[in-house]
Amino acid sequence: MNKKLLKIKNKVLRCRKCKLYKTRKQPVVGEGNPQAKIMFIGESPGHWEDVKGEPFVGRAGKILDELLESAKIKRKEVYITNILKCRPPENRNPQKREIESCTPYLLEQIKIIKPKVICTLGNFSTAFIFRQYGLENKIKGISSLHGKFFKSGKTILIPFYHPAVVVYNNKMKKILIKDFLTLKNLL
Ligand code: URA
Question: Which of 82, 160, 165 should be mutated for ligand 1, with most atoms under 8 A from CB?
Fold first, then answer.
């Protein structure tokens, strides 16, 4: 593993900055190619991610894998992480204070990997990344932003629906597949 990413990993593994360390099994730092052109940012680990220590390995992960495959993108080519590195109890939404204490790790990861394209999955990561990249005035619900391109400096930001929406509504898969195709065309 890239030395700088390993340093972050070791910090996250010891992290006690918010109360989620008390209920997590283990933090989920992120995984993938340290030189990835595309970085995916989800919300927070769920049950299986907490068990395995890897991002998107549960039901939402299976859907993400299908979407990547449909766009002919290999999972090992990209980098996948979340705005929160620890699982919130009962998979509740991330809280403001948790996002504030955890996201310095994400920002360090972005600085090291320098992705050309950042794909945010769902409302929480989209709002956080848009704020960071000076696009605060463009923040809207994911149903308005999904599949659109936004440029900030050299970085392209593309928000997607969170893959978990398909778990609850299978009809959403079509929309996600179409949105992911834009990624294929971009590369
Ligand atoms: N949902 C997320 O946002 N991230 C994961 O790693 C798994 C499910």
Answer: 82
Q: Which fold has domain 3-186?
A: Uracil-DNA Glycosylase, subunit E (3.40.470)
Domain boundaries, the chain: 3-186
Identity of residue 169: N
Q: What are phi and psi of 103, to 5 degrees?
A: -70, -15
User: Please, is 94 exposed, middle or buried when counting C-beta atoms within 10 Å of its C-beta (0-12, 13-18, 19+)?
Assistant: buried
- Cβ of 50 closer than 6 Å to ligand 1, yes or no, is no
Rg (CA), the chain: 15
Strand positions, DSSP E, 9-75 = 31-32, 38-42
Per the document, the length of the chain is 187
pLDDT per residue over 35-66, tens digit each?
999 999 999 999 999 999 999 999 999 999 99
Residue range 18-40, pLDDT digits in tens: 999 999 999 999 999 999 999 99
- Return the best residue to mutate from 24, 44, 86 for the ligand 1 pocket (most ligand atoms within 8 A of CB): 44
Tell which atom from ligand 1 comes closest to the C-alpha of 54.
6
Provide the whole-model pTM.
0.97
Residue 1 pairs in a beta bridge with none
Q: How far is the CA of 153 from the centre of ligand 1 (A)?
A: 27
